[in-house]
Amino acid sequence: IGFLCAAIGGVAAFFLQAALIGTSLELPLILPTLFTAFFYGATSGCLCNQEGGLRGVIIGSIFTGFIIALFPALLIKFGNVLVDGTTFGGSDSAVIGIFNTQIGALISGTSLLIISIVIFIAPILYSALTANKSGMTERSK
User: Fold this and answer.
1) Would you say the pTM of this structure is higher than 0.70?
2) According to DSSP H, which parts of the chain are helical?
3) Which of 43, 82, 88, 137 is least enclosed by beta carbons within 10 angstroms?
C-alpha cells in the first residue's frame, strides 16, 4: 500500500509541477521514479502503519511521494545544480545538496573546510580528554 500511495503522490506532484509551468512558482519538471517510490514508500508505509494504521500509511506515503518528486526540483532551483537532462533519484541527497549550496553561499570555502575539520576533531578530543575522569562510562581496553 505504501508503494502504491507513494507512486500516486509522485504522479500528483508531477501534475502539480506541470500546472505551475509559466507561473512565478515554476519548478523544473521531475518525472517520478518507481524505484524511489518503492523504497521510500514501502519504508514510510511500514513506519506509518505502526503509528497511524491504514490511514497513516495512505497519508504518509502520499506525502512521501510528493517529497520524492519535489525535492529534486527544489535542488535544481535552489541548489544551483543543473546538468542537462539529469536529476537525482533520492530526496535525501537533494536535501543535503540544497543545504550545502546555501551554506556555501554564506561561508567561503576555506572557512567551511576549517569548520568541517573542527567538527571532525572535536569528538575525538573530547573522548581523549575525558577518558580517565570519574563518572564517565568505563571503557574496556
Assistant:
1) no
2) 2-19, 34-78, 91-106, 109-129
3) 137
Establish how many alpha carbons lie within 13 A of residue 67's alpha carbon, considering only the half-sphere containing its beta carbon.
19
3-state secondary structure at position 23: coil
Structural Rg of the chain based on CA atoms = 21
Distances (CA, A) of 85 to 30, 31, 56, 113, 133: 10, 11, 35, 31, 57
Give me the sign of the Cα torsion angle 85, 91, 97, 101.
positive
2 in Cβ contact with 57 (< 8 Å): yes
Torsion, Cα 115 116 122 125, to 10 degrees, reads -110
* pLDDT digit string, tens, across residues 2-32: 889 999 998 999 999 889 888 888 888 878 8
Distance CA(43)–CA(48), nearest Å, equals: 9
Q: Please give the grid coordinates belonging to residue 56.
A: 497513516
